[in-house]
Amino acid sequence: MDKKFIGVIGGALIVISAFLPWMGMLGISFSGIGHPDGPVFGLIAVAFGAMVGGFAFLSKKWSNILAIIIAFFELGYMALLLSAVSERNMDAGMGLYIGLVGAIVGIVGCVISMRQPKATESIA
Fold it and tell me: Hey, CA dihedral for 62, 66, 69, 75, is it positive or negative?
């Protein structure tokens, strides 16, 4: 398996997290896309995840750097949402945690992909 797919998996986890429950209270849960204030919170996560996965798939140095930067923004975004949910005495859903894990996997995958040695051509 090519190491660039670790970053792609991180991006996919971020996208999937937008459709999973982010918060719950009194037995009612909301996903990022199904948020009562509108789907903008989930769409931000989908956009970040798609960009991380796409840039990681390109596997160029510049694209990996962009993917790492975007994944750090996603990590901060999910951490901010997680703290906002806990401040309001709501239950944090697994979507927030999967988004955090996806951002971390995206960062690690892109760093590993950048450190991967390039194939050398041999003249036989």
Answer: negative
Asked if the structure places residue 61 within a domain, the reply is yes
Q: What is the pTM of this model?
A: 0.86
Q: Is residue 30 part of a domain?
A: yes
Structural domains in the chain (count): 1
Question: Please, which pLDDT band fits residue 27 given cuts at 50, 70 and 90?
Answer: confident
| Domain, as residue range, for 15 | 4-115
* 8 A C-beta contact, residue 74 and residue 15: no
- Residue 87's nearest CA partner among 76, 95, 77, 79 is 79
- 66 Rama sector, left if φ>0, alpha if ψ -120 to 50, beta otherwise: alpha
